[in-house]
């Protein structure tokens, strides 16, 4: 965990690995989580908490060109954009981030063959204010 200030040539290379590193957890944090999980009252409400977040996000993107794909047990929502554009997942994710300031993860990056299924993944583990702003933007695309 940390940050980097470096020339673009270096940060370009860092970004290639960044996404895969940020979803890994170091050993001390794993031990802390294991201790946290010994008390069921600390996590029993998480399912409902994230379901409300998901429902809120889905409500925000209603009327957009993004079609939600049913998923559960995650704080990511998959959406299809097949009715919006023929762009690749990576190209659309980059455009959303750069032009609209809404980050999405192209599902294709998780496949060795880089399949383009026209699917994006949005994280809804955000403040409602952030989800409202993202939804408003996504409805205009």
First-last Cα distance: 34 Å
Structural class by secondary-structure content = alpha+beta
State the domain count. Answer: 2
CATH topology title of the largest domain = Aspartate Aminotransferase, domain 1
Largest sheet, order of strands side by side?
Answer: 1-2-4-3
Question: Could you explain how this protein is built, in words?
Answer:
The protein has 141 residues and is an alpha+beta fold. It is built from five helices and four strands. It has a four-stranded antiparallel beta sheet with strand order 1-2-4-3, with helices on one face. Strand 1 and strand 2 (76-80) form a beta hairpin.
Keywords:
141 residues; Aspartate Aminotransferase, domain 1; four-stranded antiparallel β-sheet; 5 helices; globular
Question: TL;DR of this structure?
Answer:
Helices cover 46% and strands 11% of the residues.
Helix-strand blueprint:
Elements: H1 8-22, H2 27-36, H3 46-61, E1 67-69, E2 76-80, H4 89-100, E3 105-106, E4 119-123, H5 128-139
Antiparallel strand pairs: 1-2, 2-4, 3-4
Helix pairs in contact: 3-5
